[in-house]
Amino acid sequence: MDEYRLMVFPVVLGNGKRLFGEGIDKKVLKLAETKTFGSGVVVLTYLPER
Predict the structure, then answer these.
(1) Burial track 22-34 (b if 16+ CB lie within 10 A, e otherwise)
(2) Cα(7)–Cα(32) distance, rounded to whole angstroms?
(3) Suppose 35 and one of 4, 27, 43, 49 were both cysteines; which one would form an S-S bond, judging by CB atoms 3.0 to 4.6 Å apart?
(4) 20 in Cβ contact with 7 (< 8 Å)
(5) Are the beta carbons of 30 and 46 closer than 8 angstroms?
(6) pLDDT tens-digit profile of 1-50?
(7) DSSP class of 26
(8) Can you say whether residue 5 is alpha, beta or left, with left for phi > 0 and alpha for psi between -120 and 50 degrees?
(9) Edge-to-edge, what's the strand order for the sheet holding 4-8?
(10) What is the reported pTM?
(11) What is the separation of C-alpha 5 from the centre of its chain, rounded to a whole number of angstroms?
(12) Neighbouring-strand partners of residue 27
């Protein structure tokens, strides 16, 4: 994977679904960029550390 882009919405819900399943190897990621929109949505771009 070259990069991960996560969109975070300002909504609080009860239980949620995991983004990544159990048993997946952990990766160290570096925050490369953030964008914040007037709606409160934040886009986070992460790159794998090499």
Answers:
(1) eeeeeeeeeeeee
(2) 14
(3) 43
(4) no
(5) yes
(6) 799 999 999 887 777 777 777 877 778 899 999 999 999 999 999 999 87
(7) P
(8) beta
(9) 4-8, 42-48, 29-36
(10) 0.71
(11) 6
(12) none
